[in-house]
Amino acid sequence: MHSSKHILLHMNKLPVAKQVAFLGCIVEGMGVRAACRIAGIAKGSGLRLVREVGAGCEAFHRQWIRGLETTRVEADEVWSFCYSKEKNVPEGIPAEVRAQFGWGDVWTWTALDATSKLMITWRVGDRSAATGDPFIQDIADRVTGRIQLSTDGHAVYPQAVELAFAGDVDYATVVKEYASTPGTTDKPAHVRYSPGECRGVVKARVQGDPDMKLASTSYVERSNLAVRMLNRRFTRLTNSYSKRIEYHRAALALTFFYYNFCRKHSSLKGKTPAMAAGVTTTVWTVRDMLFAADQIARES
Description:
six-stranded mixed β-sheet; alpha/beta; single chain
């Protein structure tokens, strides 16, 4: 499918082996500086690879992950930040610059096929309807039939689902209740850095006739853990977070492409999510990912 004779994009004159080595480190959760040291390339070259290959991977995904016959979709949001946490964004930055998206809190909305474990789509933005509405519409555009959709209780979802599916959906919410831990700043580390204790799960029908036994967000929440494991920018208490939003988006695209096409899922008997969803028939390599990005860039 891909020819090794291609001149990869226009980004680097690096040997293909070094590009593959660097990207392989990135998609397995390593930071840019460490990946550059292992691959033997300059930091600037590594950042260009992240930005340009990531953009190509996102474009490839947007074009080819369509016409899905999935029947069960789970959606969720995962938090991160860019430049600094919201409370730490410097006051000295001009107000008009601070108002632009990409400073402080950044949310990634994800939609997972509960059967094939395919990451159907994602969207980077805030936690408002401005991001939620097009995200849900994108799900509707990528599936071919009626689906059962499960989300958490975030208030943006019901209206977004109604706008996108116009009632042609079986939709339920799953709200998990956690024990509160007031005054965590005074608690020991094993309390402050541990997840809250889940005390109960409340499921509710919102639209259509969902099978409440299948209403769940467990798979998409587990995929959010995979994102944090595979993408160093989501690792907490480090300095590997994104300083610019375009690199954050690009790194996510690399992660999701690798997750869908290259990484065998433990529950799929040696298949990748893309294979289980019928998008491809083979396990792809990081080299294939690189050439897929090149191919889509040539077509655009």
